[in-house]
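Hi L., both proteins are below.
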Amino acid sequence: MYQPCLPPDDLPSLDPSYRQLSWELEEVAGELFYKYCDPITQDLLSRCGWDVTTAGKGLTLVILCPNSDLNWQVLQSIPLLAESLQELSPWAKIRIYPPAGMGSAMEVMI
């Protein structure tokens, strides 16, 4: 099931009501995104850390891969992830973080 990540500590200070609305939007967007995914993709996401953020223009799906096998599976699932994310926003991207020591993040615009 969807479990939102906590926002980074280095975010600029925002009006508390705006920040609350932003977190609520991200939570709802994450729940809807997960709902749009097929059961196999939902299972894959449940084995990774992931979140949907609204920083910048559009939505960003952030996926943290805990091992190389899951990283490979996530990379192979990019078309399915993109399809589900496009249900929510025409301006979206996917950012995939591989396991520690396996390189830098990859970002895909959809």
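That was the first. Here is the second:
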Amino acid sequence: MAPKSQIQLNKDELKQVFIHNLNRLYFGKRYLNDHLEELVKIASFNDLQLGLNEFWDDVKNQIIRMDEIFMLADEKPSDRECNPIMSLVKQNFCLDEKDGLAINKDMDLILYVQLLEHVNITAYRMLKNIAIHLKWKDVTQLLVECFDESVDADHLFDLISKQYMAKS
């Protein structure tokens, strides 16, 4: 059997894929927003606390943008239970652990925030490509802004990790 050279994209199915993945990002950001105060308190390094607060502002802005995207797509957020980001935050940030070395907690925060941002960068890129294909210019612009914030946050936490190492 010869491989298929071209896949015919159905715009309704593509929109469904877009909304499904937007929901995952949206409820992940909402969960993160609800727990960032805890993460800021866990951090012992002042620059990390400042970076987490800046990241938190970005998360809030991205939620607002995604609300607008849902509106532009004439959809409502759903699939609250399908939230891989929630699992990542619960399992990797170990929010229930109260003891341990400060450096372990700080480096975990840096590592897993960057991991989250890498997931977001990839997801925003995919959503942006779908939005371009669907000719949703306003949605595309909102996704570009979310993407850029995630890239900036990744760079910020890379700098914070270097500052952390320099202080020791």
